[in-house]
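The protein record passed on below.

***
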Amino acid sequence: MDTTTTTTDPSAAAAPSRYESQKRRDWNTFGQFLRNQRPPVELHRCTGGHVLDFLRYLDQFGKTKVHLQGCPFYGQPDPPAPCACPLRQAWGSLDALIGRLRAAYEEHGGPPEVNPFAGGEIRVYLREVKEFQAKARGVSFKKKKKTRKMDDQSTSSTTPFS
């Protein structure tokens, strides 16, 4: 009878983090999307165009109301009544998704210099979605300049490490 016990690393037995689980689901979903293309696309042939197609495909499953320019509630952050404008993927959700897919691509052996999730066209698309959704909801994403109080200005001439 063998009396030796084996110890296992507790981190190996622990469930993956929420982030890791979501990243795996996103990666599997993207892989399925590529396999469903006609003809199917192999991962090493994936381009930023395929990523953009994937983001547009996901838009139909969004839950964020985005008012169109002809809507009477366009530009209102809290519209008073329902309207027929479409539900879309929120910009923040798309941005987080791209971050997870970018990491997953490299974890699966993809070279960072050709990562289709890191291309300029993806950044432009995300910026356009962000700006459009901000206008549609009446939210400004402009960076605000920090204003200094008079007290801060008078103390700024003193030694900073006194």
